[in-house]
Amino acid sequence: MLSARCQFQQVSSRRLTAIRNVAQEQWVSNVLIAMLTIFFASPAITSAQSISQPTATIAQTNNVLANSLSVLSVGASEEMYDITLTGKVDYAAGATHDLGTITLKAAKGGSTSVVIERPSEKLKEMRTHPDEGASGSWSDNRGSHLVASQNLMIEPYWFEPELLLKAYIKTNSWQPQRDISDTQHGPSRRRITMARQMPGNQPQFDALTRQSSTEIALDPDTLWPRELTFKEQYPSVRPTTATLHITYDDFQLVEGHLIPFHIRRYLNGSLVLDIKISTVKINTGLIAQDFQL
Does the predicted model carry a pTM greater than 0.90? Predict the structure, then answer.
């Protein structure tokens, strides 16, 4: 898409603590924290659960996802290998509410970078998801920190639907579980629920994998991805369910790729990041150092 308008969620420890003592490790809007921090209770989830329509076969669902991917890059002369998005962000975490700038970077293979600059601090989150295992780190005014395992479960490409769909289709990390048509609540959506298998031999993800799910909602007419919802139940003495919900709007064409220029990120029903993209750069040759603190 032409440069135009196109989870940092650092949820304060108070806010994330309510969800789970992971708040510190999740950074920004549960944006930084939230990039990883997962979780927003979205009406879409409830609505999907109330729909009773025949479930498509895995082959049919994969075909729908492949068609959606084709639509997003229908005018592109080359495949997307990396992307850099910049814009403004309205950031909310607990009592904190700031306007700032945001830079989002992603590269094929699972590497992402989220940088939020607010008047009071600069928040960064870097993640990699190579075949041998997922890892990540984030930083704020207090220093650098490792991303918590539960936050690594969140899809790293949460802000870029085309790379997100490629990850679903071209790896064995995701398996469709449910495919329904939702016409009863708000705009019509085709909701596809996925189960994820984390890369590498990382036992710390086993319980989280069993208790988490990801739902992608497509516009049934255009096949554009309009929502992404991640739900996870933390195994603890008092299990807590957290929900991260992301919406995609204002799609614009940039170099043949459809990019959402308005992205919202919610945590358990509360808006934590409202992102409005102004510039998009595709295939600039991002390298490993671009995804390091």
Answer: no
